[in-house]
Amino acid sequence: MTYLTTIAHRITSDGGTVVLGIQPMPSPALQPPGEPSWDDYRAAVLALGNQHCQVIDQSHLWGSDYSVGEAAGKYADPIHPSDAGARDIADSIWDALTR
To answer: What is the Cα–Cα distance from 21 to 96, expressed in whole angstroms?
Structure first.
């Protein structure tokens, strides 16, 4: 997260605006044991956002966990969205940026 914070500071110090996106959660089967979890990364990005920038959090765009989005056909594989999922993500980003 140190590198991301440094980048955010550089952008904002030059008058820019930082917007970070958190994609919908991937399959928990992809989580290596002993590594920081997806929830850990999400929490770190949200903390950075609270201090320096806007965060578009799509973590639960399709429901409370991965299986809901998978059952709805929003994933093409355990991490990548299907065409319908990609459209939902794009619409969500557009809505967040144009409010």
So the answer is: 10
Structural domain for 40, as ranges: 2-98
Which tens digit of pLDDT belongs to each residue from 15-51?
998 999 999 999 999 888 888 888 998 999 999 888 8
pTM of the model: 0.84
Phi-psi sector, 7: left (phi>0), alpha (psi -120 to 50), beta: alpha
- What are residue 96's phi and psi, to 5 degrees? -65, -35
> What is d(CA 41, CA 55) in angstroms, rounded to the nearest whole number?
13
The CATH code of the domain that includes 81 is 3.40.50.1110
Mean pLDDT of 68-77: 97
pLDDT for the residue 49: 85
